[in-house]
Amino acid sequence: MEDREIINLSEKLFIPTYSRYPIVLRKGRGVRVWDVNGKEYLDFLGGIAVNVLGHCPRKVVIAIQKQVQRLIHVSNLYYTEPQLNLAKILIKNSFADRVFFCNSGTEANEGALKLARIYMKSKYGKERYEFISTYNSFHGRTFGSLSVTGQEKYHHGFEPLLDGVRFVPFNDADAIAKAITDKTCAVILEPIQAEGGVNVADKNYLRKVREICDKEGILLIFDEVQTGIGRTGKLFAYEHFGVEPDIMTLAKGLGSGIPIGAILTKDEIANAFGPKTHASTFGGNPVACASAVATLETILEDGYLLDYCQRISKYFMKKLNSIKERYPEKIKEIRGMGLLIGVELSFDATEIVKGCIERGLLIGTAGDGTVLRFTPPLIIEKEDIDEAISILDEVFKEANA
Questions:
Q1: How large is the angle between the packed helices 382-400 and 350-358, nearest 10 degrees?
Q2: Fold adopted by 58-302
Q3: Chain segment 218-252, per-residue pLDDT in tens
Q4: How much is the pTM?
């Protein structure tokens, strides 16, 4: 089928929840994808921070192929080796003692909210059920995760949401302290608000929040759905800040594109979940776990890729700042960590994104639509960055004209 035929038929058949760009992608390798017409694109969005190792990384593909031939799915009524192997890697390389597997970031956050409530109820009584979240946060699309998402544009039409949620400004630990009541259960934060505009936590912010939570006897949940799995140059973003959460959620890059999410926590908290309190039919699927194991083994091997991410991101930031110097009236700020980078513009970013797509560069937006979001694979090279910067320069030059 031709691209226009595919697009037109899709518009008729799918529930209209997406504003898609008019390209039909057929294959991908490394940092590049190709559409049905054979046009090549440099992918600096990476499936929105999912393709951490690029498209179809060899080790991951082989792991998936082997597992598909061996066992595709059984329920969680039984044990499987891929699930165990993944749990061991995550626990060995994190603060956690226990893990629960699900299918997505929003599922992981739903489970984290449930776990926090049931733990606090068992420890303090039924009244500890409120959550504190931040404005501009994003935690998912299901009712629980949507209720702790601090952006009204995602709430519209779905009210009433869950009660017992208080929102405070990001990077304001004092506001969190003031928002705590005798009913507060947990604080949920992203170390970097990715979808909210790539807003990075201040150096001491998370440490202060940790101290507040410890003092008040409430839980601290880190949503690392987008910041985890090497995205920031550490396996988990919390490592940059020297602060450990009580519960952490993962997804996106964990499976290199195969859907998988995870909740990580300590023994005491994990034990609040007993049989039949929480479950997921497909959670910890053998194929998804095999993909995640291969992904993590590749990232953690010799620590090279994490160090490389930090080095290459400095080069990328330097090049982006050169664009800012040429168009200071159009680019307000460049911020981020590792290969999660936002470029805040003085105008709506949609036309810049479209201009880049036309020239063969895939990027995205974040926040209120004025922020360009870059989440390329961790394997990008200087030549890829130079090509992307050249395209950006052309698009900004045209916008300037």
A1: 120
A2: Aspartate Aminotransferase; domain 2 (3.40.640)
A3: 999 999 999 999 999 999 999 999 999 999 999 99
A4: 0.97
